[in-house]
């Protein structure tokens, strides 16, 4: 992940100077994770919401300050706002999640869930993640799909890092349980 972030940071800086090829590179590096995140929030409308997010990203690119990892977080925050706007328009009031204050580090158990998720198709994995409570789904999407670290994910969600770690841990634990029930892992560990 780190190598990609150095490449991403350099491409962002070139794109800010008007280099269109660099902007295309930024898009290619960021779009898969961004689309996965948005799909986890809004389902089939993900392409439209991601397009709206990219219009805003392109418009405000000159204002961004930071490195590749920071850029991923900034982009995720923009996409999240677009997704929540979309959900509000759809149902007028999205479910708000309760802030969890307990602090838990992600234990080794999450590796099993992450490995199991990676063995599924993207569609299967996102469908499973969408079945989680919203706070857990968002935490898992930001940590696993977008690849943000705890503090960056917490900034996107406007929560304490401990709350995001807890939600990601609970979400991954729940996913691991579902995958074991369904035998979706397909291989013994």
Detailed description of the structure:
By secondary structure, the chain is mainly alpha-helical. Helix content is 74%, strand content 0%. It has nine helices and no strands. The protein has helices at residues 2-16, 20-42, 46-60, 68-91, 109-119, 122-130, 134-145, 150-157, 161-182. The longest helix has 24 residues, at 68-91.
| Range of strand content | under 5%
Rg from Cα: 17 Å
Number of strands: 0
The major pleated sheet works out as:
none
Taken from the alpha-carbon principal axes, the silhouette is globular
List keywords for this structure.
189 residues, mainly alpha, 9 helices, disordered C terminus
Reconstruct the topology from this structure.
Layout: H1 2-16, H2 20-42, H3 46-60, H4 68-91, H5 109-119, H6 122-130, H7 134-145, H8 150-157, H9 161-182
Helix pairs in contact: 1-2, 2-3, 2-4, 2-6, 2-7, 3-4, 4-8, 5-9, 7-8, 7-9, 8-9
Could you write a compact summary of the structure shown?
With 189 residues, the chain is mostly helical. Helices cover 74% and strands 0% of the residues. It starts with a helix and ends in a 7-residue tail after the last helix.
